[in-house]
Design a protein that fits this description.
With 308 residues, the chain is of the alpha/beta class. α6 runs parallel beside α7. β9 and β10 form a beta hairpin.
Length: 308
């Protein structure tokens, strides 16, 4: 299984081509699920787990991997399913995102597939607000559900979402009331985190679910304003991995558009382990920020909204 993930670092050549690679896994039963390979640092047979008193029932224990303790979350139980009982045949996906490392217990791991983001669709409407999906796609005529692991982790280990008073004071030197920041993210948790942080410093926020919606919204705004929109929409904050159009492709499209190219872009992603400054320059983004640090995000927003 280690060979399955060994080439992750070599897979960055798909970046900017609106493609991604999904690691396909199972929880209980044969339903396939997916997670972006870039979030997965390692896949291993479930090691011996040490119980963690007082932890969430979804936390099955602590795995000691090369001397480093990793919290292991039962992904089936955390998303409303049955507990994975047979640990001897189970696997742990060691993931790295949102500046943290954690393990997800899964029933089985199948393979990696390379697909286009245009094949990744948002969850069907009518699913309600409490589901754990960010997207769905088809692989070999089977519906693959992409789990919102950010939502899972946020429910088990909530993070501080408040902007500090010191940063709020720094933002009062410019008038933000007449401008709007567009936020594109397929995770409802991430969208709301950003909205709460920016609203607390007086920024108007418009939310969309993916890159395609973001580009359409910006183009409609340009038509409405008859050209350059930066006086009203100076900044776009975009996730990287989104259905239909990823953040890299969105950034390139915006920067190549005559009426949108002056809009500043912050790529705000959980994929901190694979991103580098060279990639920011390649696609034309102004800044990369790893999720989620409200003070860092608020300070960056103040900087780019003050820029001409």
């Amino acid at each position: 299984m280690s060979k399955l993930i060994a080439s992750v670092d070599q897979r960055t050549n798909i970046v900017g081509q609106n493609r991604l690679e999904l690691l396909i896994f199972r929880l209980i039963g044969e339903q396939p699920f997916g997670i972006n390979v870039f979030k997965v640092r390692e896949v291993l047979q479930c090691p011996e787990l040490t119980e963690m008193p007082g932890a969430s029932p979804c936390v099955r224990g602590i795995a000691h991997l090369r001397g480093v303790p990793i919290t292991v979350i039962d992904l089936s139980e955390a998303t409303g399913g049955r507990r994975i009982e047979d640990l001897k045949s189970a696997f742990v996906l060691v993931t790295e995102y949102n500046r943290t490392t954690q393990g997800f217990l899964v029933g089985g791991v199948d393979r990696i597939v390379n697909i286009n983001w245009e094949q990744i669709m948002p969850p069907p409407k009518g699913a309600g607000a409490n589901h754990y999906l960010t997207a769905v796609t088809k692989v070999d005529n089977k519906l693959v559900q992409v789990i919102d692991v950010e939502k899972v982790f946020a429910e088990i280990s909530p993070i501080d979402e408040e902007v500090s008073e010191d940063v709020k004071k720094q933002v009062t030197d410019i008038d933000l009331s007449s401008m709007t920041v567009l936020v594109a993210d397929d995770s409802s948790v991430a969208r709301n985190q950003v909205k709460r942080a920016l609203s607390s410093i007086g920024v108007n926020v418009e939310l969309v679910n993916d890159g395609r919606q973001a580009l359409n919204w910006l183009e409609d705004k340009a038509k409405e304003m008859g050209g350059d929109i930066t006086s009203k929409v100076p900044l776009l904050i975009s996730d990287i991995e989104m259905p239909e159009m990823d953040g890299y492709t969105l950034t390139t499209s915006v920067k190549n558009h005559p009426d949108l190219r002056k809009v500043h872009i912050i790529l705000h992603s959980s994929l901190s382990g694979v991103f580098n400054e060279a990639m920011v320059r390649k696609v034309g983004a102004d800044q990369f920020i790893a999720k989620f640090h409200p003070d860092e995000l608020a300070s960056a927003v103040r900087k780019w909204m003050a820029e001409p």
